[in-house]
């Protein structure tokens, strides 16, 4: 059984999402993710997180609200990436090369 690591670091997680989206867009209508995952929603949440990161709001309740929103979006993205990983492992259980093509790191 292949073990696939999901990053916990925010930048690595968003980077993995970018790689997954590239592969999804490359496959277009033949993508395994069609109907299984709302990639547009994931990409929007990713853009929102990057925008919040670039804003650097002043310390206040507004910043706490941004942080809460960002954390919720990161949890959602992480959960969806985990679902994508599980789908790929179910379809390609003995083909780690294919899973790597989607941007995932394989742990030996």
Structural features, described:
- The structure is a single chain.
- The protein is about 65% helix and about 5% strand.
- The protein has a two-stranded antiparallel ribbon.
- It contains 4 helices and 2 strands, in the order E-H-H-H-H-E.
Secondary structure topology:
Layout: E1 3-5, H1 10-27, H2 39-55, H3 61-91, H4 96-101, E2 105-107
Antiparallel strand pairs: 1-2
Radius of gyration, in Å, reads: 15 Å
What is the end-to-end distance?
10 Å
Q: Helix count?
A: 4
Strand content: 5-15%
How helix-rich are the residues, as a percent range? 55-70%
* Helix-strand topology string: EHHHHE
Adjacency order of strands in the biggest sheet: 1-2
What is the makeup of the main sheet? 2 strands, antiparallel
How would you sum up the global shape?
elongated
Low-confidence spans: none
Strand elements, count: 2
Coarse structural class: mainly alpha
Average predicted local confidence, pLDDT:
89
């Amino acid at each position: 059984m292949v073990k696939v690591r999901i990053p916990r670091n925010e930048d690595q997680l968003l980077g993995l999402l970018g790689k997954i989206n590239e592969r999804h867009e490359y496959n277009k209508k033949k993508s395994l993710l069609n109907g299984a995952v709302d990639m547009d929603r994931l990409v929007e949440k990713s853009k929102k997180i990057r925008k919040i990161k670039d804003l650097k709001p002043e310390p206040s309740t507004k910043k706490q609200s941004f942080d809460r929103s960002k954390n919720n979006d990161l949890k959602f993205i992480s959960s969806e990436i985990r679902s994508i990983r599980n789908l790929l492992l179910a379809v390609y259980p003995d083909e780690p090369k294919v899973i790597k093509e989607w941007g995932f790191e394989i742990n030996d």
